[in-house]
Amino acid sequence: MTGYSPLFRRLDALLTTNSEFWQFMPFSSNQLVWEQSHPEFCQWLLSLDDEAITHFIEHGEALAQAIAEWIPDAPPELYQLSQTDAYSLHQRSLPKGLDVGIPGAQMATNHRIQPGGSCLEIALARVVCW
Asked: What is the total count of domains within the chain?
């Protein structure tokens, strides 16, 4: 993972700097969230027809270049950062419990709750897990 650390740090910095363009509450308004801060950008977005949208979906680099007019420091570089090679996964054995998605505390709780266990043990196990 070390080889990807600089890439992810740069990606994090770009996304943080430009969070107003992607980090908002969806459907909280019936208008584009950038209408006040970037009206020309909104006009451009609303002017796109289906053909243009399809083109930009299929050609991410063209989209990055097009929106660079309004977000000058991010789109081309964000696009480049997204074009990484797949990280090769090595088959690793996972500790018991993680291989089935049960966190350690919950797994320990499940082991304590056995048929015939006392109500106090079951209650304590639930509190510990919670």
From this structure: 2
pLDDT class of 100 with cuts at 50, 70, 90: low
Residues 78 and 113 in one domain: no
* Model confidence at 129: pLDDT above 50: no
Q: Do 75 and 21 share a structural domain?
A: yes
Q: What is the DSSP letter of 21?
A: G
User: Which element (helix H / strand E) includes 14?
Assistant: helix 5-17
d(CA 38, CA 34): 5
- Write down the pLDDT at residue 83: 77
DSSP labels, 79-130: HHHH-PPPPPPPP-PPPTTGGGT--HHHHHHHHH--TT--HHHHHHHHHHH-
Give the structural domain span for 74.
2-82
Residues, the chain: 130
